[in-house]
């Protein structure tokens, strides 16, 4: 049998191999967020108590919590579990510097991000909740008034909020930390 | 018997190929949606709801938290302007122009995003620290040896990448224009 004939007679097997390869590839990519053992949430969980602002230790070589973090930033984290309670993030923003906020689901994917410029009249007021909790909150809204807070529906029950604060000059971490301390997060009580 | 052997072979080879493709995909970049300008490449959508399954897989595996699209943009350079891989034995000069941003920072890191230990004990420079000349231009020298002016120290490493972060930049809202926005030049200097 010539090479060509061998190839043609084995074509169904080759096609089958390619299909299996494709399915394996797509399945493993889609499954990765569910299987990855050291994703951002797993790395942050021990350092971040539930519904409390925690400032992460500054990274040093060989000892960084997450890869690709900017050493010029101080990072605060607020972990939430909407099964327990909605998360309220609140504080006064002002002064120099820069505060960045990003809201992440259990798999680390960003579902909302903003800078301190997004704050309403210098105040930050964000509520992270489930669709059911949102409905309950909206039921109490006065009809002729727009809510004075930003309401974000979390795509998963668990997740975290990162607050990054720049320390523009080396060795001036205290100021950056103080800016994070202006923002508080807590479990939202039943209303 | 032959049919069984062939089925088994097809299954084994197929799974191996599929997993290899997955490994390659998560090792190299963050899926689709890359924007490049010179040696700088960024994946702005990685930090948004529109992150594709490849980007989600990569960040789940690495454990990093990418910059949100509204927070700013992050770019990585693995090569200099000529396309040659960055070599820690060489000096590199990074210079104007830089896109508008409230703050920007430049950091030397390993290709996996770890900080590189160095004698000076600092790992990056911010826009607030940069010394500019009378015309407002600046140059940053990336080198293992201490350099006058803006010096970004490089530790003992076999390979490195440069990460440029633009915080609170108007570029985010027009990510399609990134490719034509002038990005910093990166030229190789002397090599040890």
Which features would summarize this protein structure in a list?
heterodimer; A: 191 residues; alpha+beta; 5-stranded antiparallel β-sheet; B: 192 residues; Jelly Rolls; 4-stranded mixed β-sheet; 2 helices; 19% helix; 27% strand
Write the layout of secondary structure elements.
The complex is a heterodimer of chains A (191) and B (192).
Chain A: H1 3-9, H2 11-35, H3 40-44, E1 53-55, E2 73-81, E3 87-92, E4 99-105, E5 110-115, E6 123-129, H4 131-139, E7 150-153, E8 158-166, H5 173-181, E9 183-187
Parallel strand pairs in A: 6-7
Antiparallel strand pairs in A: 1-2, 2-8, 3-6, 3-9, 4-5, 4-8
Chain B: H1 2-27, E1 35-37, E2 40-42, H2 53-62, E3 72-77, E4 90-95, E5 103-109, E6 124-126, E7 139-143, E8 150-153, E9 161-167, E10 185-191
Parallel strand pairs in B: 7-8
Antiparallel strand pairs in B: 1-2, 2-3, 3-9, 4-7, 4-10, 5-6, 5-9
Counted by DSSP, the helix tally of chain B is: 2
Whole-Å distance between the termini of chain A? Answer: 80 Å
Largest interface by residue count?
Answer: A-B, 58 and 61 residues
Largest sheet of chain A, order of strands side by side?
A: 1-2-8-4-5
CATH architecture of chain B: Sandwich
What does the largest sheet of chain B look like?
6 strands, antiparallel
What does it look like?
The complex is a heterodimer of chains A (191) and B (192). Chain A has a 5-stranded antiparallel β-sheet. The mean pLDDT of chain A is 89. Chain A has helices at 3-9, 11-35, 40-44, 131-139, 173-181; strands spanning 53-55, 73-81, 87-92, 99-105, 110-115, 123-129, 150-153, 158-166, 183-187. Helices cover 29% and strands 29% of the residues of chain A. Chain A is extended and about 80 Å long. Chain A has 2 domains: 3-35; 40-187, Immunoglobulin-like, CATH 2.60.40. Chain B has a single domain (31-191), classed as Domain of unknown function DUF1214, C-terminal domain (Jelly Rolls, Sandwich), CATH 2.60.120.600. Chain B contains 2 helices and 10 strands, in the order H-E-E-H-E-E-E-E-E-E-E-E. Chain B has a 6-stranded antiparallel β-sheet, with no helix packed on it. In chain B, a hairpin with a 2-residue loop joins strand 1 (35-37) and strand 2 (40-42). The radius of gyration of chain B is 20 Å and the shape is globular. Chain B starts with a helix and ends with a strand. At the A-B interface, helix 2, helix 3, strand 4, strand 5 and strand 8 of A face helix 1, helix 2, strand 5 and strand 9 of B.
């Amino acid at each position: 049998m010539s090479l060509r004939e061998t190839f043609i007679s084995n074509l169904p097997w080759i096609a089958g191999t390619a299909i299996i390869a494709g399915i394996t590839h797509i399945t493993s990519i889609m499954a990765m967020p569910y299987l990855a053992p050291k994703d951002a949430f797993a790395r942050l969980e021990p350092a971040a108590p539930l519904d409390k602002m925690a400032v992460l230790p500054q990274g040093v070589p060989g000892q960084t919590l997450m890869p690709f973090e900017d050493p010029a930033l101080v990072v605060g984290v607020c972990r939430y579990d909407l099964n327990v309670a909605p998360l309220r993030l609140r504080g006064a923003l002002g002064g120099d510097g820069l505060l960045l906020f990003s809201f992440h689901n259990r798999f680390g994917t960003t579902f909302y991000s903003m800078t301190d410029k997004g704050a309403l009249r210098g105040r930050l007021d964000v509520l992270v909740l489930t669709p059911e909790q949102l409905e309950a909150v909206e039921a109490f809204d006065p009809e002729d008034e727009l809510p004075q807070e930003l309401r974000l529906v979390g795509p998963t029950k668990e997740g975290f909020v990162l607050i990054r604060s720049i320390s523009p000059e080396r060795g001036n971490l205290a100021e950056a930390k103080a800016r994070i301390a202006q923002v508080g997060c807590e479990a939202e009580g039943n209303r | 018997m032959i049919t069984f052997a062939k089925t088994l072979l097809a299954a084994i080879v197929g799974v191996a190929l599929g997993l290899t493709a997955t490994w390659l995909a998560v090792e190299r970049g963050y899926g689709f949606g890359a924007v490049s300008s010179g040696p700088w490449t960024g994946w702005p959508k990685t930090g948004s709801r529109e992150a594709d399954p490849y980007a989600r897989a990569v960040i789940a595996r690495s454990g990093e938290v990418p910059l949100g699209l509204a927070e700013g943009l992050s770019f990585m350079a693995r090569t200099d302007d000529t396309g040659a891989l960055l070599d820690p034995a060489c000096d590199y000069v990074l210079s104007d122009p830089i896109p508008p941003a409230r703050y920007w920072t430049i950091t030397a890191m390993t290709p996996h995003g770890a900080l590189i230990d160095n004698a000076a004990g600092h790992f990056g420079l911010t826009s607030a620290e940069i010394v500019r000349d009378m015309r407002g231009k600046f140059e940053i020298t990336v080198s293992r040896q201490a350099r006058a002016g803006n010096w970004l120290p490089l530790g003992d490493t076999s390979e490195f990448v440069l990460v440029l972060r633009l915080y609170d930049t108007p570029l985010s809202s027009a990510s399609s224009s990134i490719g034509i926005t002038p990005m910093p030049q990166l030229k190789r200097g002397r090599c040890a």
